[in-house]
Amino acid sequence: MILAGGESRRMGRDKLTLEVGGVPMIRRVLDAISARCEDVILAGVNTAPLEGIRIVPDERPGRQGPLAGMEAGLAAARYRRVFVAAGDLPFLPTELVGALLDRLEELGACAVVPQHGCRTHPLCAAYDRGVLPGVRSSLDRGIRSVREFVGTLDRVDYMEGELRRFGDPDLFLMNVNSPGDLAIARRGDAS
Questions:
Q1: 188 vs 21, 46, 147, CA distance in Å?
Q2: How far apart are CA 69 and CA 5, in angstroms?
Q3: Does residue 150 contact residue 96 with C-beta atoms inside 8 Å?
Q4: At 91, phi and psi to the nearest 5?
Q5: For a designed S-S bond to 36, which of 60, 61, 97, 179 qualifies (C-beta 3.0 to 4.6 A apart)?
Q6: pLDDT tens digits for 122-177?
Q7: What is the rounded CA–CA span in Å between residue 125 and residue 69?
């Protein structure tokens, strides 16, 4: 599953179509996830259809953010283990997707979330589909932050030390949220 945002005010247009290394960011993320996941869902956005990808709208009106997209994606997911990624992670390693999903199954956790530089990255994480009632309850209580929602879960494993084996966490956990981030991503792709 992939969770993606649409138009960005800071970017002036749908940032997922912006290219890094000549490839739209959304395609880069989809390729990383598709290599490891049979069922790939693009949740919460209105975009042109992409081959092999199911697009599901948010269940709630008013574009309530990534947690609402996660709700829609989890509700539509066909499998119990779900990988959730923002669509603006242009350097997401397929190996990380697999490692987080495998660890989720091994530990029987609710979620396995990367943690790097004192920050958690809940939009690049593996979840048990069983968290869906908690997502709905959080949204009903006005919680919109995925990070805040993860804080309500009782069995979360945070992957930190092992992240280096997948490359530079500063690069592959980077979200592209501004023109400056895009410039950094484009330089990172050249290295």
A1: 9, 29, 26
A2: 8
A3: no
A4: -115, 25
A5: 97
A6: 999 999 999 999 999 999 999 999 999 999 999 999 999 999 999 999 999 998 88
A7: 14
Q: Classify burial at 149, counting beta carbons within 10 Å of its beta carbon; exposed 0-12, middle 13-18, buried 19 or more.
A: buried
Q: Rounded to an integer, what distance in angstroms lies between the CA atom of residue 48 and that of residue 191?
A: 31
Classify residue 101 by burial, with Cβ atoms within 10 Å: 0-12, 13-18, 19+. Answer: buried
The residue type of 134 is G
Type and span of the H or E element at 75: helix 66-76
CA distance 177 to 53: 24
Residues 6+ apart with CB under 8 A from 118: none
**Are residues 6 and 46 in contact, defined by beta-carbon separation less than 8 angstroms?**
yes
Asked if pLDDT for residue 58 goes beyond 60, the answer is: yes
**pLDDT tens-digit series, residues 163-186:** 999 999 999 999 888 888 888 889
CA–CA separation, 72 and 60 (whole Å): 9
Torsion sign across C-alpha atoms 60, 65, 69, 71: negative
